[in-house]
Amino acid sequence: MKRLLLPFVALVSACSPQAGGDPVTRIDLENPDAEVAAAPSPSPTPDIDSACETVTFDGSQFTHCTADPADHAITTMLGSPPHRGFEAYANAAPDDAKRVAFAMNGGMFDGDGKPIGYYVKDGERLKELNRNDGAGNFHMKPNGVFFGTGGKWRVMAADAFYSQIGDRPQFGTQSGPMLLVGGKLHPEITEDGPSRTIRNGVGVDGNGRAHFVISEGPVSFGKLARYFRDVLKTPEALYLDGSVSALWDPARDRMDARAPIGPMIVVQEKTR
Fold first, then answer.
1. Sign of the CA dihedral 81, 26, 179, 62?
2. What are the backbone dihedrals phi and psi of residue 75, each rounded to the nearest 5 degrees, phi first?
3. How many angstroms separate the Cα of 252 from the Cα of each of 12, 54, 160?
């Protein structure tokens, strides 16, 4: 299988520069020689106030965070270079940060941290839907969009989104590939392929709750997809990123900051 090497400035990469300006190695899905990123911050003992929990599935640990429309609101956020991360967001908006239940990076981005696919914040579209062909995970179609208005959140494949969604949502971010479509694995994802790295994704269940999952160590696309399918029962699930995947869980004093990130999905407690 041919290895895919994309440089720092490649638009199909969600990776940011590593120390010393070295180029980032992006991997093909089935490349057994894939490089593995460092694991996220260890999860402390679960806190009853946290929306996140550490779980074990098929021999691997994941952190699973749940956003409930009854309790939470979701927005998207972009950092400004060179401050692209949760800490910069918290420092820039301390009042908003006090309401954060958790946040994850969410969406592919270019070398400047700007989204390469659909991106909407507060009803303003900053980037159009990207249906182009290309190399890399983002273009492994179908890719998809996580979006919502008020307490109604959805994950849809990009082509379905294009043909069915006419009204602009309050928030939206595009990534890829889809992990699940109609309850089935993406056609190019196997049950547990040899490619391993840290990965995160999102899916919405039949009750309208959004489930965000990040692996605590290197896992395959298939294992992450099967967790959404077999445990969370989300008919659609979207891959958010790999290697730079990050979680902010204030209740458990966790704020991953291994590399600069692009779009962030911020889940906030609703004001009562």
1. negative
2. -140, 165
3. 33, 11, 37
Q: What is the mean pLDDT of residues 18-40?
A: 38
Q: Which residues contact 241 (CB under 8 A, 6 or more apart)?
A: 14, 105, 106, 107, 108, 175, 199, 200, 261
Distances (CA, A) of 232 to 53, 130, 183, 210, 214: 13, 28, 11, 10, 13
Alpha helix segments (H runs only) across the chain: 86-92, 94-97, 158-164, 221-226
Angle ∠(188,191,194) on CA atoms, nearest 5: 80
Determine the Cα–Cα distance for residues 44 and 253; give it in Å rounded to an integer.
8
Summarised one tens digit per residue, pLDDT across range 7-25 is: 333 333 333 333 333 333 3
Query: Cα(143)–Cα(116) distance, rounded to whole angstroms?
Result: 12
Report the alpha-carbon distance of residue 122 to residue 244 in Å, rounded: 25
Residue with tokens 């995160």: 200
The pLDDT of residue 232 is above 70: yes
Q: Looking at residues 49-55, what average pLDDT do you find?
A: 95
pLDDT tens-digit profile of 105-163?
Answer: 998 999 889 999 999 999 999 999 999 999 888 899 999 999 999 999 999 999 999 99
Cα 37 from Cα 256, distance rounded (Å): 13
